[in-house]
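#onboarding

Welcome to the new folks! Below is a worked example of what a typical request in this channel looks like: someone posts a single protein sequence, and someone else replies with the predicted structure as tokens. Don't worry about understanding the tokens yet, we'll cover that in week two.

Example request:
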Amino acid sequence: MADALWRMSAVEAVGRLRAGEVSPLELVDAALERIEQVDGMLNALPTVAAERAREAARHVDPGSPLAGLPIAVKDLNDVAGVRTTYGSPIYADHVPDASESMVARLEQRGAVVLAKSNTPEFGAGGNTFNEVFGETRNPWDTRLTCGGSSGGSAAALAAGEVWLATGSDLGGSLRTPAGFCGVVGIRPTPGRVPNGPDPLPFDTLGVEGPMGRSVADAALMLDAMAGPEASEPLSLAAPARPFLEAAAAPSLPSRVAYSPDLGITPVDPDVREACERAVERLEAAGVSVERVDPGIGDAPEAFQVLRGLGFVAGMEELYDTERDRLKPDILWNIELGLRLTPQRIAWAERARGAVAGAVAAVLETHDVLLCPTSCVTPFDVSTRWPREVDGVPLDNYVEWLRITSAITLTACPVVAMPCALTATGRPVGMQVVGPFRGEWDTIAAAAALEQVWGMAEQVPRTPDVAR
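Example response:
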């Protein structure tokens, strides 16, 4: 019975919970058994709150949106009474008294928080490792990285440890691991998923979002996360129709824009080839695909400036008091921000506006814009970040994330989803970028693309350690 339960989709599990065919406690126990079986190979969920989850499962409202479904919460998000480290030795023993508003909302809507998922220190970087818990490995091949910074969530989903997990995304932290692990993540429009208390409530670069094994599962979770929050100035109203309805009504886009590199980044040939095959399958299904260069050449530099500014705003106090305990990449990012001039910041804001306008122009004549979730395939877990891509050297830990960070600047919603496998069996993901605040239509399009690409059945999977 437990074996069958961990293989179910989140949508099916919630349906069975609501029908009384399975109980929240049964799902908690099935997940705990699966975690015991496989997490030693992955290190995706280093903190498990079994008794807290069992207690919550006994009191959940079966009529709530998630009806008692166990989930994982990224270790950047506070959960009351559960060790929350932010991946940093500075907070290795931190146990918050209160949950963040996003976590509280999910629990109010029937989620049972079972575990915390691993993340790099303060979510900085596209590979999930830290000094508190170590490295998280990819279920497709445990020699490889799962990506980051929502790597623990993606790996846990791909291995069947939980049915849904939270992610967050600044430069690609949700989208990269979704692509590397063959699962689905949604980076929503800023404000769609409110979360506080937030010292930077007007920030639109970093967002929270859902992760699942399919478009429908991620849409189900987005419904549970979305809605207005009185204390959040940018929070948006709940959608007129549930996002799950969009996933249940797949709509193949008639006209698609596609770029393998957005004109701004080198891309590994294996990624180009896999994405080209995926695009050719769309064309064979009757979709009109136009290869485009959106003209966003200033995006990488603008993102670096605005990211540096955000690191100073959010981490300057830690830099002053705990500098010796922060990892070098974080120090580099803060110090980049400290060197910025007002003129440079002003230029980056103007450049961001031009990038957003250019992508909006593409989406005026196309239903969605497609591009890879990463310029490389999953790499060795001990490689902290790629030093070169397709022969082009990279000089810092953010440069290889250009293809996701550029889209961050647009504030457009994105569904990151698997589209193909390489010749060596590594998953490759595609970003499905929709118009601003257009999650509903973007999810409907992604659900149709999922049917064409046929990758949803690849997960959950037992970790592969034999290669």
